[in-house]
Amino acid sequence: MTKAVVIHEIGGPEVLRYEDRPVGAPGPGEVRVRHTAIGLNFIDTYQRTGLYPMQTPFVGGNEGAGVVTAVGPDVTEFRVGDRVAYQGTPGAYAEERIAPAQRMVRVPDGISDEIAAAIMLKGLTAYYLLFKTWAVQPGETLLWHAAAGGTGLIATQWAKALGATVIGTAGSADKVALARAHGCDHVINYREEDFAERVKEITGGRGVDVVYDGVGKATFDKSLDCLRPRGLMVSFGNASGVVSIPDLTVLARKGSLFVTRPTSNAYLGRREDLLEGAEALFKAVLDGSIKVEIGRTFRLSDVAAAHRALEGRETTGSVVLLP
C-alpha cells in the first residue's frame, strides 16, 4: 500500500482525499517509482474540477521525480535505483506509483529531485512553446502573461537567452519584481495598467511577434490587440476560464492574425520528442540559462491547501509537493 491523493468526485479542493491505495507490480513497459518530489500544476486543478474530464476515481497530479523501485519484465532502458522524472502522466499524487517507462527521463547529476519535479511539465511546456510552436529568434519581441508563475519564470529566462525582447505581465509589485529578475525586459502590472496599451507604447506601435497566454478568458481579447500584423496568439491555458472565438473575422480585423491552442501530447507524445525536449531543458538549467524558482513547498497530505493557493494566485514560481 501507498499513500495517495484520490479524487472520487469532481469539485473543489475539498474532494482531494489523502488515503491508502495499492501499488502492485509493474507490468510490461512499466516501472514503479518512489516519489521524492511532485510538481503542482494548473492542469491538476482542471482535472479536479472536471474541466478536463477524468474517469473517477483517479489519483491526481501529472508531474513527479523519484527513484525506480521495480521494472516490468520487458523494460531495458531503466534499472532499479535510477533517478527519473516525468510529466503528463496522471497519477503523480502518491508516495509510490506505476507508470509507463516510455514517459520517464533520467535526471542528470547536478539537478535535484525537487528541481526536476518543478520543471518537467512547466519547463517542457516552455520548451515546445518557444522552440516548436513559435521558434523564437534573436531580435523578436514577445509577450508572456503570468510571467511570475512557474512556467513564466522558466520561459522568460529561456526566451531572453534566445535573444528575444521579453515583455511580461504580473498582478502585484512583488510579482513584477520577480518577473523582472527572471528575464523580462519590461513587466506590466495588469492591475494598474492597460497591458495592450502599454505593449503598444513599448513596441512603438508595432506590437509583438507572439503572445503566450496561459491565463485564458480574461486576457485573450486584449492580447490580440498586442500583436503585430500576422502575429501569433498562443493560448495554452485556461487559468481564468476557457477561451472561445465566436467570430473568426476578428482575426482579420486585427491584422490577419494566427491563433493556436497547443498541447504537450501533440508536441511531446513521441519519445524522441520528449527526450529532445528534456535534454534541452536540463542543459539550460545546468548552464545557468534557467534559474529555477521554487516559490513554496507543501506536504503531499496538504495538497488541498496547495490547490487553494495556486487557484487564489497566491503562488509564484513552481510549487512542489513533498511525500
Automatic annotation (TrEMBL):
Enoyl reductase (ER) domain residues: 11-321
One Pfam short name: ADH_zinc_N
Keyword set, alphabetical order: NADP, Oxidoreductase
Domain of life: Bacteria
Classification via SMART domains: PKS_ER (SM00829)
InterPro entries: ADH-like_C, ADH-like_N, ER, GroES-like_sf, NAD(P)-bd_dom_sf, QOR-like, Quin_OxRdtase/zeta-crystal_CS
Keyword Transport: no
Protein name: Quinone oxidoreductase family protein
Native source species: Devosia albogilva
